[in-house]
Amino acid sequence: MHSVRIIAGRWRGRKVMFPDSAHLRPTPDRVRETVFNWLAPRIVGAHALDLFAGSGVLGFEALSRGAGRVILVDSAPVVIKQLQQTKAILVADTAEIIQTDALGWLQNAPINQPFNIIFLDPPFQLPLLLPCCEQLVTRGWLADNAVIYTEIPHDATITLPNSLNLLRDKVAGNVRYQLWEKP
User: Fold this and answer.
1) How many domains does the chain have?
2) Domain limits at 171?
């Protein structure tokens, strides 16, 4: 098992455990600090989605900082088990954990409430970022002025649907992280 800490909010300093897996790359502290500084005016009360949740640190950090509700989606049973344990330890009642294929979920799940914030960090080796963004846009998953946080390899570029505007773009180590907005 590995751990990453929540860096601010009501669970500041608490550790989030995650299983050993080559596909899990939790967002580093300094990147998360920057991202949540970007999101600060939007986070309180937000309805957030942590797609490809992995460690779940983005979703739990959002709740720690005042998000109203977070849905964490991942397909790996061992990851889901750990997310459920983290939810129980933190008493994160407003976290919902769903074990399923992320793209299939976006294509088929009923939309009860559009999201204000989406954390979209699929495994780098799988071409899922663009199809997921297309589903978010075309199916109506995005609330007005919603933002999508993405991570891609540092030397990669991506073109997302024209209805999304790039707000922020930074590189840290091997990761390029970006914030997109639906105007």
Assistant:
1) 1
2) 2-181
| 3 state DSSP class of 57 | helix
Structure tokens at 167: 């707000």
Please give the structure tokens belonging to residue 17.
Answer: 């455990």
Per DSSP, what are the bridge partners of residue 181?
147, 165
The string of DSSP codes covering 130-145 is HHHHHHHHHTT-EEEE
| Dist CA 16 CA 135 (whole Å) | 29
| Domain CATH number, residue 104 | 3.40.50.150
- b or e along 95-128 (b: 16 or more beta carbons within 10 Å of the residue's beta carbon)? bebbbeebbebbeeeeeeebbbbbbbbbebeeeb
| pLDDT tens by residue, 9-64 | 999 998 888 877 656 677 888 899 999 999 999 999 999 999 999 999 999 999 99
CA distance 159 to 58: 23
